[in-house]
Amino acid sequence: MTLKDAKVGETVKVLKVIGEGPIKRRIMDLGITKGVEIYVRKVAPLGDPFELTVRGYELSLRKEDAKMIATERV
Q: What's the mean per-residue pLDDT of the chain?
């Protein structure tokens, strides 16, 4: 399962950040690393972007980036 598949109100745990180069680096710089729990707060009306709570702060992330984050439900 990827973060893109998570539903509003769910908490998921990051298993792995999939991808290469600068995109992977940017996702990791945002604090999304292996073992971090992410709470899905909202999804925009057209489904993009997601509003997440990560490490105590709020983050908006596009679907394109969310599908690069392998997760499991907590």
A: 90
**pTM of the predicted protein model:** 0.86
* Cβ atoms of residues 52 and 60 within 8 Å: yes
Quick check: 74 and 12 in contact, CB under 8 A?
yes
The tens digit of pLDDT for each residue in 14-39 reads 999 998 889 889 989 889 989 999 99
Q: Is the dihedral of CA 62, 67, 73, 74 positive or negative?
A: negative
- CB under 8 Å to 46, separation ≥6 — which residues? none
- Give the single-character DSSP code of 67: T
Residues spanned by the domain of 47? 3-73
CATH code, 39: 2.30.30.90
